[in-house]
Amino acid sequence: MNAVTQFDDPSLENTLAHYDIGTLLRYWPAANGIENSNFFIRTQHHARQREFVLTIMESRPYAGEAYIPLMYALSAKGLPVAPPMETTGGYCVEELAGKPAMLQTRLDGKHVYNPTRSQVCSLARFVARMHLAMQDSALQLPAYPRDLAWLTEQAASTRGRLCFADADLLESSLRKVRSLLARQDVAQLPQGMIHADLFRDNVLFNSYGLSGVLDFHHAANGYWIYDLAVIANDWCNDASGQLDPERTTDMLRAYHQIRPLQEAELWFFSHFALYAAVAFWLSRLTVAVAAQQRTPGRFKNPDEFKRIVQHHTEKSFFLDPRQLSV
Fold it and tell me: Tens digits of per-residue pLDDT, 244-284?
């Protein structure tokens, strides 16, 4: 989505000098960043080597001014989230290459690309705890911006640039999402802080289990069931993009053990899975269209989510509430 910010060694060393982290040994780019530029940093402080993550903010996070307090609040609740480190002057944000930058401790663990059911359930339990931890927070988060207006605007930007079949799939899917978001009973579903981007490249596991959740750039106030829909679309489907019913059931059941799901959330879960898939398809489509117009940037293949959207339009997933207690 954005070009990787370039900087020289003296600029980096000058920025890191504001932190009490020792001497820079080496740094290298983290491969997974899209919204921001991320680098791993290794330093030596006395006889100890440590690693950090340096994030250069290429775009404003959805949470705005609440972004940093949110991460501190999550960490204070005992969740595996690394808040920004403070400089020796007490600041959480520095500047590098003319852009805001923050430093975080590098959490232990690795990304998994073929997650087990146990790992999916661990993530679901984390999300339930995260939702509950923030439900009484005084922190005011803005509404999730990928709403109906955003979907409509993004779809309009692709008009005339898609083949007939893709344009027809997009429009028919958008009609269903519009219908979903216009319902009064949907408006009554539980809402609160959501991560909204819980993909496999934002979660870490070590030999003990889930060890870290990253990238709260999309965090905002939204429907809690939306987080589960995002997880289902990335963690619970097969290679073709179709949901695995057993894996999806396990995920919802694990979440339910911590924060009981309402029946209405289960009724609309399949529709939210379509909503989330359309949102990420459009997000990738608009960047791909820009790339076709020779606007440089990093982006992911939109066809992955086109296939997921197609499967959601062909077959809905429904879980009988009684199965949550099995």
Answer: 999 999 999 999 999 999 999 999 999 999 999 999 999 99
- Strands (E) in the chain, as ranges, are 23-29, 37-45, 48-56, 94-96, 99-105, 191-194, 203-206, 209-213, 220-223
Distances in Å between the Cα of 195 and the Cα atoms of 74, 81, 159, 223, 322 are 11, 12, 30, 10, 28
Cβ–Cβ < 8 Å for 281, 306: yes
Sort residue 73 into left (φ over 0), alpha (ψ -120 to 50) or beta.
Answer: alpha
CB 313 within 8 A of CB 243: no
Global pTM exceeds 0.70: yes
pLDDT band with cut points at 50, 70 and 90 for residue 294:
low
> Does the pLDDT of residue 61 top 80, yes or no?
yes
Kindly list the domain boundaries of the chain, sorted by start residue. 9-105, 117-325
**The pLDDT value given to residue 169:** 97
Three-class DSSP category at 211:
strand
Give the Cα separation of 91 and 109 in Å (integer). Answer: 27
Q: Which residues contact 5 (CB under 8 A, 6 or more apart)?
A: 37, 56, 58, 96, 97, 99
Which superfamily is assigned to 9-105 in CATH?
Answer: Phosphorylase Kinase; domain 1 (3.30.200.20)
Instruction: Compute the distance between CA of residue 226 and CA of residue 197 in angstroms, rounded to an integer.
Output: 10
Considering just the CA atoms, what is the radius of gyration of the chain in Å? 20
Architecture of domain 117-325: Alpha-Beta Complex (3.90)
Distance CA 2, CA 221 (A): 25
Q: With H, G, I as helix, E, B as strand and everything else as coil, classify residue 205.
A: strand
- What letter represents residue 324's amino acid? L
Question: Helix 224-235 crosses helix 263-292 at what angle (to 10 degrees)?
Answer: 60
- HEC string of 113-124 equals CCCCHHHHHHHH
Q: What is the DSSP string of 235-278?
A: HSB-TTS-B-HHHHHHHHHHHHHHSPPPHHHHHHHHHHHHHHHH
